């Protein structure tokens, strides 16, 4: 039986390579139930959710990782955010009729970024060129060129779940034996069938691939779909408008409404809320 909503790391004891396996089911379905996504966008959203989970294993501090695509094509924006403890949210938006477009046709001219935001420390952003036929190939090229780390990524998505495999060389190992070991593990990984990655347990999959190798599996880490929106965050966003604009909203609309694009939750701030925020914004300005 396959693991549900987990991230699990593993290493090869006799080669200089490491790996990760991800399975998303309830978390993937939670993202999809917020909106009726066309199949091509649903596929890509699942792939990016899996990729974000795979990459989150490298976060060694409290913070979050964001994978964002902005496009001039049919797909306008796609955003997946995941925290250091694998709490994730995801959304996408598009315009026009989306049918069965390929990855290049779906995104057109696009910009894709990987952003790491620690709670304490400096923000880091990397740009991923989108010049390959699949999203996974784009990520592999990014790690090869930007990080100088040979990487293989496999992403699979079905109607109800998504799964992924990441293999990567250890950065300190670059000798000839290391290259042979890397070629060996990636050649075997290329034989994985789509159904195997989606349906097999991690132990069974790794045994089928690497029964002659010494593979050490670490503990699974649960992955949860959880939005970060709240009434407090909405109020903070209103405060940034300033006292004058809040007063205009009070006089013209008598309320402010905000909708979370990730979970579709509606937030309504009435006149009482706005009056309190107007007072706070005025005090903040006076103290500045």
List keywords for this structure.
single chain, 288 residues, alpha+beta, Hsp33 domain, CBS domain Like, 2 domains, 6-stranded antiparallel β-sheet, 6-stranded mixed β-sheet, 10 helices, 14 strands, elongated
What is the beta-strand fraction?
25-35%
Helix content bin = 25-40%
Look at the structure and give the mean pLDDT.
89
Characterize the overall form.
elongated
Q: Note poorly predicted spans.
A: none
Evaluate the radius of gyration. 22 Å
Number of strands: 14
- Element order: H for helix, E for strand: EEHHEEEHEEHEEHHHEEEHHEEH
Instruction: Tell me the name of the CATH class of the largest domain.
Output: Alpha Beta
Describe this structure in words.
Belongs to the HSP33 family. Redox regulated molecular chaperone. Protects both thermally unfolding and oxidatively damaged proteins from irreversible aggregation. Plays an important role in the bacterial defense system toward oxidative stress. It is found in: Cytoplasm. The chain is of the alpha+beta class. The protein has 2 domains: 220 residues, Hsp33 domain, CATH 3.55.30; 57 residues, HSP33 redox switch-like (CBS domain Like), CATH 3.90.1280.10. The protein is built from 10 helices and 14 strands. Strands 1, 2, 8, 9, 10 and 11 form a 6-stranded antiparallel beta sheet that branches. The protein has a 6-stranded mixed beta sheet with strand order 7-6-3-4-5-12, with helices on one face. The protein has a two-stranded antiparallel sheet with strand order 13-14. It is elongated and about 70 Å long. The protein starts with 5 loop residues before the first strand and ends with a helix.
């Amino acid at each position: 039986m396959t693991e549900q909503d987990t991230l699990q790391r593993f290493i090869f004891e006799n080669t200089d390579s490491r790996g990760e396996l991800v399975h998303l089911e309830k978390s993937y379905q939670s993202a999809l139930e917020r909106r009726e996504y066309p199949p091509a966008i649903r596929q890509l959203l699942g792939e990016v959710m899996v990729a974000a989970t795979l990459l989150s294993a490298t976060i060694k501090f409290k913070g979050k990782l964001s994978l964002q695509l902005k496009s001039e094509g049919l797909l306008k924006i796609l955003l997946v955010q995941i925290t250091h403890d694998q709490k994730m949210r995801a959304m996408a938006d598009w315009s026009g009729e989306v049918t069965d477009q390929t990855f290049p046709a779906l995104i057109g001219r696009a910009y894709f970024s990987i952003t790491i935001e620690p709670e304490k420390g400096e923000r880091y952003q990397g740009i991923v060129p989108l010049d390959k036929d699949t999203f996974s190939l784009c990520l592999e090229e990014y790690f090869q060129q930007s990080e100088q780390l040979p990487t293989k990524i496999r992403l699979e998505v079905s109607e109800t779940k998504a799964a992924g495999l990441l293999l990567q060389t250890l950065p300190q190992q670059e000798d000839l034996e290391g290259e042979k070991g890397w070629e060996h593990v990636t050649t075997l990984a290329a034989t994985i069938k789509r159904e195997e990655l989606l349906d097999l347990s991690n132990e069974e999959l790794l045994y089928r691939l690497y029964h002659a190798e010494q593979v050490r599996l670490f503990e699974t880490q649960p992955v949860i779909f959880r939005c970060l929106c709240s009434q407090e965050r909405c109020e903070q966003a209103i405060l940034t408008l300033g006292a004058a604009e809040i007063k205009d909203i009070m006089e013209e609309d008598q309320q402010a409404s905000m909708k979370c694009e990730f979970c579709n939750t509606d937030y309504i701030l009435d006149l009482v809320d706005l009056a309190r925020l107007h007072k706070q914004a005025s005090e903040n300005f006076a103290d500045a």
